[in-house]
Amino acid sequence: MSLPNKVLKRISPSSVLVCVKSCLLNSQCLSINFDRTLLVCELNAGEGDTATLVATTGVMHSKRSNWNANASDYGECATIKCSNGTTCLNISGIVKCIKKVPYCGEPVRIENSTISLPDSGQLGAMRSYTCRGRTISDSPMTSTCLSDGTWSIPVVRCRHIESCIDVQKCSSTDGEYWVYPSAVENKPVKIYCDGMSTTTPKEFLTMVNENKAFYAFKQQKNGVSRCSSVETRTWPASGTTTYQKVRINTKVCKYDFIL
């Protein structure tokens, strides 16, 4: 069993004895989670009950109120009740309840991301977010434990890969890639990215079948130029252009021009 979302501090590696002692020395700690496999101790800011405890393989949960603290085992701090926000410490033989820097609990969750585990939830501790799946961030996402006991909220978010510029964060090779434009509700669209080694890569749709464009046929009759097409634009010669890709604007998902 474990109590999630109430973690004040993580200690690793640890033992049950060290975990219990650390809780006794922290006035905000009301229970512990201890992972027997990973040897990770978690100090909790709550006791937990049948509604909040979660069955977790290899993890034990114990309430501080159930312990029979013995001063000979844990020192005089085991029997001293410090006020909230202070911790009992034995400094040069003198036992005091001193004000400690705050501990932060669980930071805000960001959609499509995973969070690194910090060494502790003390003031200044930092957690980093990593975008997962088909998402990226425009800058590093971090959260810091603040003096009021809360985590800072990252400004940037994980967003879908929508263009070849986004793809460049993962690859610099021209080729076919899947993107998820917001213009089509982030549904997958397969595009060809051209110019990936430049600062202005371009998106193209690869046609399923070969496509052709015809130039008007130019004729000369009685010294007057006549074309077989209503197109007024003239060409140096008639002909056919075969193309397999069309330029696309992924922001609005509209065709632009022919390659």
UniProtKB/TrEMBL annotation:
Residues 102-160 form the Sushi domain. Residues 160-259 form the GON domain. It comes from the Eukaryota. Disulfide bonds join C131-C158. Keywords: Disulfide bond, Metal-binding, Sushi. SMART domains: CCP. GO terms for molecular function: metalloendopeptidase activity; zinc ion binding. This is Uncharacterized protein.
